[in-house]
Amino acid sequence: MPRPIPPLNPLRAFEVAARHLSFTRAAEELCVTPSAVSHQIKVLEDNLGIPLFVRDTKSLILTSAGKAYLPGVQEAFRQLVQATYRVQRERQVPALKLNLPPTFAMKWLIPRMKRFMTRHPDIDLRVSTSKHMSDFARDDVDLEVRYGRGDYPGLHAEPCLTVAVTPVCSPALLTSGTPLATVEDLRHHTLLHDDSTYDDVSNPDWATWLEHAGVSDIDTSRGPSFWPSHLVIDAAMDGLGVALAKRPWVSRDIAEGRLIEPFPALTLPVQFAYYLVYPEERAADPRIQAFAAWVREEQVAEGQPPPLR
């Protein structure tokens, strides 16, 4: 039968005392009295049947056995620390990996993300952006935001953000001398185009919006185009022209005065919406539940409840 290892407390007292070569300093580190350290060392020596220290009134010296024993004890404690760290790390909640459309991440999530971090400090978000749909069986993604009708066989799809489009521009554009009082005035301004493409036909362009506004004689073929969508919004803020933007992406910029909405009554609703999408078997994942609940709360708090499920 192998001999049992000595008790842990005496071993710890030995390691600290040997490192400091002082019972007094060891006692300070261990938050006990020097006599308690001395007692623990005596217990260890009795257990091993051999002295580990030479004691005198002025110094504490390791015996040859103590010198030989110390490296193995220190290595054992290092391994205990590492093993404890590994098991605690494994118990921690893993990061929630999100794949989002670039502008959803830039214009909706990031401005609100601090509120999620405050609400759920134990959940780290790992955000990536792509216009392509993830393959959940292959890609390292927990949840994805998709733009469409929500028809994704085999996947849970929860509507999270309705969409409407509206023209926006910099307030400085209205002081340039060129009026923008009516839709017809757009013929005198540069139209900025969102060149995002989707598999659906619901993504409005300037021609669609102008038809909605009842105007048909404005040339919509001219003007610079941008992708992703937040670039056309930045171009509008820089005074390059008038952009047709999804309302959720510009609501904060309008509220804070970086953009204006010259024709708010002519906002055009879009059939498609943004959906939180993930495999059905992940529905009970507490990280996904927390993120989905937070998105719903954000929409309600802003007076924009998501579409009915």
Automatic annotation (TrEMBL):
Keywords: DNA-binding, Transcription, Transcription regulation
Domain HTH lysR-type: start-end pairs: 6-63
GO biological process, alphabetically ordered: DNA-templated transcription
Domain of life: Bacteria
UniProt xrefs under InterPro entries: LysR-type_TF_proteobact-type (IPR058163), LysR_HTH_N (IPR000847), LysR_subst-bd (IPR005119), WH-like_DNA-bd_sf (IPR036388), WH_DNA-bd_sf (IPR036390)
GO molecular function: DNA-binding transcription factor activity; sequence-specific DNA binding
Cross-referenced CDD domains: PBP2_GcdR_TrpI_HvrB_AmpR_like
PANTHER family documented for this protein: GLYCINE CLEAVAGE SYSTEM TRANSCRIPTIONAL ACTIVATOR (PTHR30537:SF26), HTH-TYPE TRANSCRIPTIONAL REGULATOR (PTHR30537)
Family recorded in the similarity comment: Belongs to the LysR transcriptional regulatory family.
Name of this protein: LysR family transcriptional regulator
Lineage: Bacteria, Pseudomonadati, Pseudomonadota, Betaproteobacteria, Burkholderiales
